[in-house]
Specification:
The complex is a heterodimer of chains A (319) and B (251). Chain A is mostly helical. In chain A, 76% of the residues lie in helices and 0% in strands. Chain A has 13 helices and no strands. In chain A, helix 8 runs antiparallel to helix 11. Chain A is globular, with a radius of gyration of 22 Å. Chain B is of the alpha/beta class. In chain B, 39% of the residues lie in helices and 24% in strands. A six-stranded mixed sheet of chain B has the order 5-6-7-3-8-9, with helices on both faces. In chain B, strands 2-1-4 form a three-stranded antiparallel sheet, covered by helices on one side. Chain B starts with 5 loop residues before the first strand and ends with a helix. The mean pLDDT of chain B is 90. The chains are: A mainly alpha (319), B alpha/beta (251). Chains A and B meet through helix 1 and helix 6 of A and helix 2 and helix 3 of B. The complex binds adenosine-5'-triphosphate (ATP) and magnesium ion.
Chain lengths: 319, 251
């Protein structure tokens, strides 16, 4: 425990004094403020003269003002935060020779990994929280509504799931920094994996579903369509990004009652529909996404397991 | 003096890397309080042996006990008692010398109140009393080596293992490091095991030496003993150089 805490403290101080963190933070703040501004303006225009629906505040996160909504943005680029923070965690120390020193001190080796991981998680958490506060401030200014307690809680859970999601990628980056001695290689490998899981798995799920459950143009029965969609869905769950977007969309949108996305309604239709529907209570929303979060945590743990297994018995030679 | 007390012991210690037998059946004993010089040409297996003594790599076979513990299974106990100076030592370049020492002392669980004076003492001992607040990135090779020794001293070790402590130092700096090692060992009774290629320095301070060639320890003993055995000549008429070359040619 002492080891973990000592490493944690040092790494956290390192993060906050690094240019890497500053640049990352500035970039993300800028982008999210712009996106929320666009979303807010779009919403204000759309709601001009109309009665404000419930949960307008949460729409800041889901409505697409510019190209993306904020939650889509986090889904795509959030992993990069984890990767940038972790890709050189172990191999940099190895190449500067400090790893030899670290492992010859009376601490367990996993304390080094845990300390570094927790410092990364804390950094991400602080980053996310401060950005969420800024966004909320801006949102309140633009929309002129104050979020209710339920909305605030939903934002908190949204942040928490985002933290899990980004931490998974941090874990991946740390694993690669143990596996690869070269910093450039581990950076490249983690970016490659990110692209693979975020883009190719969703595309691949389509292709595979088409191959497994082909949908002929003429003879498409309802059963076939459902089967097709189910297959595609199951395959795309291999992607952490899909896990994340599915679970956050339920949390952030109380009208959404399942993670299925087979409903085709336009944004305005949805708005008017929402007037006749009752929102899902937060506890029910959480129940819907719980399995997704569990899977997210589970794959993070698997990642850790591999990291430990590799690092524990690895020879640490000063080079 | 705690003679006969064995602080480090290996039995038939072996390390194999694929085809290469880096360390081949090493059996060695080092007594508490002595200075043991570890010689051998490049690639002999010195560093590999040292890594196994510290549990930084797994032996392929054989037994090791350091300070009464098994480095593979009781690594923490060993690391609490043994100070290690790696062959190529690294520091956190953006941190000052004091901050580097502070980090090591925290990792060793030394309470903050004792750590402060200990850090000052260590800096004093290695001759860096005025450089504590400079960034290590600015340090010369010699200063880094001294700082490395200071880090080893912070944990108040029973045994220190130094892998080529004079690597890349000029003659004057390396003499001073060697002098420092001797002084520490004699003053505090710390056992020292160090590897080096500077034979005259090894001769100057070692109580006993071991010569390792291609993974095998070909000779262990006091320099006098070995000279008697190998060259058949008495005290003061040989240099370690001649002795070393003789073993080297035979192997
Ligand atoms: N990770 C490794 N994989 C394969 N072979 C290795 C590995 N590490 C070391 N060796 C081999 O083991 C042998 C012993 O290496 P070691 O570093 O212990 O030598 P050394 O005595 O410390 O040499 P030097 O004086 O150059 O430091 C060498 O032949 C080296 O090539
Ligand atoms: Mg060596």
């Amino acid at each position: 425990m002492r080891g973990v805490y000592t490493v944690f403290r040092k790494e956290l101080a390192d993060h906050f004094s690094s240019y890497r963190f500053l640049i990352l933070f500035a970039l993300i703040t800028m982008v999210s403020l712009i996106m929320v501004y666009m979303a807010g303006m779009g919403l204000r225009e759309a709601l001009e003269g109309a009665v404000k629906p419930k949960f307008v505040f949460l729409m800041l996160f889901t409505s697409t003002g510019a190209l993306f909504s904020l939650s889509q943005f986090v889904a795509f680029f959030g992993p990069l935060i984890g990767l940038v923070i972790g890709f050189d965690a172990i191999n940099r120390e190895r190449s500067t020779g400090t790893l030899s020193k670290l492992v010859s001190q009376p601490i367990y080796r996993d304390a080094i990994i845990n300390g570094k991981f927790l410092a990364g998680v804390a950094t991400i958490a602080i980053m996310l929280t401060s950005i969420a506060l800024m966004i909320s401030g801006l949102g309140i200014l633009i929309l002129g509504v104050v979020p209710g307690i339920d909305e605030i809680l939903r934002v908190v859970f949204y942040l928490l799931i985002s933290l899990f999601y980004i931490s998974f990628w941090l874990g991946v980056a740390i694993l690669f920094s143990v596996l690869f001695r070269s910093i450039a290689t581990s950076a490249l490998a983690s970016v490659a994996l990110w692209i693979f899981f975020s883009f190719f798995v969703t595309l691949g799920a389509n292709v595979l579903a088409n191959a497994l459950v082909p949908m002929e143009k003429d003879a498409t029965t309802v059963e076939q369509v459902i089967k097709h969609v189910r297959t595609q869905k199951a395959l795309s769950l291999l992607s952490p990004m899909v896990l994340y977007t599915d679970s956050t969309s339920v949390i952030i949108d109380p009208m959404k009652k399942s993670t299925r996305s087979l409903m085709l309604v336009g944004p305005l239709e949805e708005l008017s529909l929402s007037r006749f529907q009752n929102p899902l209570p937060l506890s029910q929303s959480l129940l819907v996404v719980f399995p997704y979060i569990a899977v997210l945590v589970a794959i993070t743990l698997v990642c850790f397991g591999i990291t430990y297994a590799v690092f524990m018995l690895q020879e640490i030679r000063a080079l | 003096m705690a003679e006969d007390k064995i602080i480090l012991e290996t039995q038939n210690l072996t390390k194999r890397y694929g085809q290469i037998l880096a360390v081949d059946g090493l059996s060695l004993q080092v007594q508490a309080g002595e200075i043991f010089g570890f010689l051998g040409p490049n690639g002999a297996g010195k560093t590999t042996t040292i890594l196994m003594l510290l549990g930084l790599t797994q032996p392929t076979g054989g037994r090791v006990r350091v300070c009464g513990f098994d480095p593979t299974r009781e690594a923490i106990q060993v690391k609490r008692r043994v100070g290690y100076l790696p062959e190529h030592l690294g520091f956190y370049e953006d941190m000052t010398a004091r901050e580097n020492l502070r980090y090591v002392s925290r990792l060793n669980g030394i309470p903050e109140e004792t750590a402060g004076p200990r850090i000052e003492e260590a800096l004093q001992t290695v001759g860096l009393p005025d450089d504590g607040d400079r960034r290590v990135g600015e340090f010369s090779r010699g200063m880094r080596q001294r700082l490395g020794i200071a880090e080893v001293l912070i944990k108040d070790p029973q045994l220190v293992i130094l892998d080529e402590p004079t690597l890349g130092l000029d003659p004057d700096a390396s003499n001073r490091i060697i002098g420092l090692i001797e002084e520490l060992s004699r003053a505090k009774g710390i056992t020292v095991l160090f590897s080096s290629h500077h034979l005259h320095q090894v001769q100057k301070i070692s109580d006993r030496i071991g010569i390792m060639i291609r993974g095998r320890m070909v000779a262990v003993g006091t320099i006098d003993q070995l000279a008697q055995e190998k060259l058949g000549i008495g005290k003061e008429t040989y240099t370690l150089e001649e002795l070393y070359l003789k073993y080297f040619q035979e192997a």
